[in-house]
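Tip: read the tokens left to right.
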């Protein structure tokens, strides 16, 4: 008996839209991470950048959980997102004159990934699928 392969993405009516949106978010995080400091808005209070890092990576990981169908892919993408966050911190130090690598930012990224990936154990993992089904 052959077993059918499970789909990579959940059963969306518009898979290209959701995959494209998620990839655009990844690109936005990469771009924002490498922009010169002068082109970024001023922080309203100390430590807000750690919150921004946490939220950005939580959204990316939650998006992966909602978009991709299999748990193994979720963890592979979680590891990739952690690596992206760490890599971008090194890139800030090596490739920009006005930004510096910050281990606390990498930690905030990692904690955000863990928070977002944890949606995989909740009914929230199906929110995007339900939204897709409701759209005309």
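Filled-in amino acids:
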């Amino acid at each position: 008996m052959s077993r059918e392969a499970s789909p990579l993405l959940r059963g969306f009516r518009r898979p290209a839209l959701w995959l494209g949106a998620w990839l655009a978010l990844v690109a936005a995080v990469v771009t924002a991470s490498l922009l010169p400091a002068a082109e970024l808005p001023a922080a309203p209070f100390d430590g807000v950048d750690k919150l921004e890092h946490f939220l950005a990576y939580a959204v990316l990981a939650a998006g992966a959980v909602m978009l991709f169908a299999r748990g193994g892919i979720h963890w592979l993408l979680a590891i990739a997102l952690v690596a992206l966050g760490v890599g971008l911190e090194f890139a800030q130090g090596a490739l920009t004159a006005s930004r510096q690598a910050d281990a606390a930012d990498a930690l905030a990224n990692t904690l955000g990934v863990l928070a977002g990936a944890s949606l995989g154990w909740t009914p929230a993992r199906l929110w995007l699928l339900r939204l897709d089904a409701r759209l005309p």
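The first helix runs from residue 15 to 34. The mean pLDDT is 92.
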